[in-house]
Amino acid sequence: MQTRGIIFDMDGLLVDSEKVYYQANQLAAQKMGFEVTAEDHQAILGTTDTYLRQYFLQKLGSPELVKQFIDLSYRTVDGIIQDQGVAIKPGLVELLDYCDNHGINRVIASSNFRTMVEDFMQSTGLKPRFNQIVSGDEVTHGKPHPEIFLKALDKLAIPAPSALVLEDSPNGILAASKADIPVIMVPDLIAPTATTNQQTLATVDNLAAVIPFLEK
Q1: From CA 44, how far away is CA 49, in angstroms rounded?
Q2: Is 135 exposed, middle or buried (0-12, 13-18, 19+ CB in 10 A)?
Q3: What separation in angstroms does the CA of 28 have from each of 65, 77, 161?
Q4: Is 155 helix (H, G, I), strand (E, B) or coil?
Q5: 195 - beta bridge partners?
Q6: Exposed, middle or buried: residue 70 (CB in 10 Å: 0-12, 13-18, 19+)?
Q7: Is the pLDDT of residue 11 over 80?
Q8: Highest averaged pLDDT of the listed ranges 39-53, 69-83, 98-112
Q9: Which of 6, 26, 53, 169 is deepest in the core (most CB within 10 A)?
């Protein structure tokens, strides 16, 4: 069935933000005297703020310390973005142009806060290219629960087989799989695995490489 709408994750898929979050978390943790490892970051990729706080509560043991860490991390993220900016991912412009030329609608489905999504869209110049968003603060259950993708599908107003999810994280891929929406992986910080390979139509190197699948 022809693809009529695409559901985009944001962090690590549209914008190169996961590296920023990881750097900010490491700097904040260092200031507080503990360590955030690559394994920690992979565990929270694609999840909600609620899950993130629960995860670090197990690590820090105190809601007050978790709040201090999260607040410091967010301030650090803001500082990094102001100083360095954030890049859009390779192939995105080509894919969006293809969608425009072929009438393929799109929606962002991000576990991040809506304000953060809109800030990234504004700072990268992508805001005019996306007029529909479902964010983490608009759902009850975060990825890998399928709720966010089902809400995005409602916005597209098309059946699941006519949609395509683009994701970089195993949590997001599992959520799309549970929603019965076809999904392609565009890896960022986490390489594909045997499990993600079973759950996806394909794994591609960049967003422009999605176009041949839309032409089938």
Answers
A1: 9
A2: buried
A3: 11, 10, 43
A4: helix
A5: none
A6: middle
A7: yes
A8: 98-112
A9: 169
**Residue 69, both tokens:** 């860490």
Using CB atoms within 10 Å of the CB of residue 122, give its burial: 0 to 12 exposed, 13 to 18 middle, 19+ buried.
exposed
Distance (Å, whole) CA 143 – CA 174: 8
The sign of the dihedral angle between the CA atoms of 6, 15, 120, 180 is positive
Q: Nearest 5 degrees, angle CA 162-CA 116-CA 128?
A: 55
CB 137 within 8 A of CB 113: yes
Interatomic CA distance for residues 112 and 142, integer angstroms: 10
Q: Give the 3-state DSSP-derived string for 52-95, with helices as H, strands as E and coil as C.
A: HHHHHHHHHCCHHHHHHHHHHHHHHHHHHHHHHCCCECCCHHHH
- Residue 46: pLDDT over 80: no
Please say whether the beta carbons of 151 and 133 come within 8 A: no
pTM of this prediction?
A: 0.90
Query: Cα(212)–Cα(73) distance, rounded to whole angstroms?
Result: 39
Ramachandran bin of 210, using left for φ above 0, alpha for ψ from -120 to 50, beta for the remaining angles: alpha
Is there a contact between 4 and 163 (Cβ–Cβ < 8 Å)? yes
